[in-house]
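ARCHIVE RECORD
Type: protein–small molecule complex
Small molecule: zinc ion
Source of inputs: curated submission
Record status: active
Notes field left blank by submitter.
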Amino acid sequence: MIYLPHYVTKSMLLATILTTGLLSACFSTPSATATASTAPETAAVSSPPIIPSQPPATLTPAFQYTPVISTPTPTAKPQVVQRPAYDFEISYDPTAQKAEVKQRVIYTNQSSETLNQFQMVVEAARKAGVFSLQSVIWPDGTPVENAHLEDDRLIIPLVVPLVNSRSVSFEINYVLTLPEAASLLGYTANQAAFIDWYPYFPPYLSGQGWVIEPAGRVGEHLVYPPADFKVTIRVPDTAAGLIIAASAPGEVIGNNIHQFNLQNARTFSWSASSKYQVVTAYSGNITVNGYVFPEHVESGKAAAVYTAEALTLFSSLFTPYPRDTFSFVEVEFADGQEGDGIFYLNKSYFAYTSGVGSGLGALSAHEVAHQWWFSAVGSNQARYPWLDEALCTYSELLYYQNLHPELVEWWWQYRVDSYNATGWVNSSIYDFQAYRPYVNAVYLRGARFLDEIHQQMGNEAFISFLHSYAVAYAGKLARPEDFIALLRQSDSADIQPILDKYFGN
Ligand SMILES: [Zn+2]
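STRUCTURE (tokenized, with ligand):
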């Protein structure tokens, strides 16, 4: 069966791909290189306080920490929806593996409810000795009374409740002491990783409150609303050769100040190493930078090509990728990890010799697909992990069907058939004690579920459905009922028998 949609031709895809090149860290910093080819969004070294895009003049200035109790006049312009905004100033010492962080935040209450406190998620506090809270202060320097850490939550009481559309700003100061571990937040002899490293605002849902899910034994549990990030990382002069891979392209000022801007993103993550070699490929105007260890430059170049191919394909099938750069990083922690504008993939995948029909090919496509099924369309990863993981696993197959059809059979065998998967697709992460049964049920049977839907609907209607879903829920948190309702609308045939086969109560 030919799965190529009528509006994507293979020649069109291939024409947009790719030249690869190798930049040596000895000659130029990759961050600077990446920035040179993109419209600079960063400004000078000294930065004004972060403020949301212009509020109506009649409303409270964003930086006033005590909200003014007033009602916008009838003539006021409609309030623009404001995302949480974070401005980080980080002093990172790669020798001590410590980071002192000053994090300014602005939060606008977008719900109809009045908030008496904030609850921020501090994933870094889940491991003892990593997150050390120094202070929480208002912009005038006075302490936020009774702000405190409660397990992995930072509680910020609001003396003046925050009503709808009002903003509040404060500053959190803390020190991160990285554990020596190949983990999402940790360091090894070869690199440091900063994933889920800062306190963040989870979504707030009217009638439900802050969406904070506990960690499970498997899977991911954090739920993120879109936010804006400005990040400045200073390193000592002795670390001038340090290379930082991040969710956004960096601007390097002098030898030791790295600046990043990222808008409308679920997360901002980064990784530092003096060993990274940078491989580059292009997907149209999008620059793909891969940060790999010296022994894996060749497979890194291949991964850059697969990544660029997948970006081009998914931009055509789903919705256009919204940024002009994308990065991936070879890491020493297990498996793959998605982030906004970036993914991380374990080094074992780079030690291959079998071309695109490999874990490197499949996982590159998978992690790229998370730019749609995680970054653009958000979801509750703890309760409904199939909403992103089944779609990303099935997106691997779309990648092979469209660009490497000779490997479709291989993919089914390698990725799905060999595991004899069982379990309900709509399981939560809490239903499992071990990783493999979780992947089998959610990822692999999820792919089978989507394939049956795909076969029943036909290619054009199925791709059109995925496109509609990506458009409808961009920037939002999609729920299973949203996905199913849109699917019912899009499929003229009855999907209930397929749902009964794969979904438990
Ligand atoms: Zn995934």
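CURATOR ANNOTATION: The chain is about 25% helix and 25% strand.
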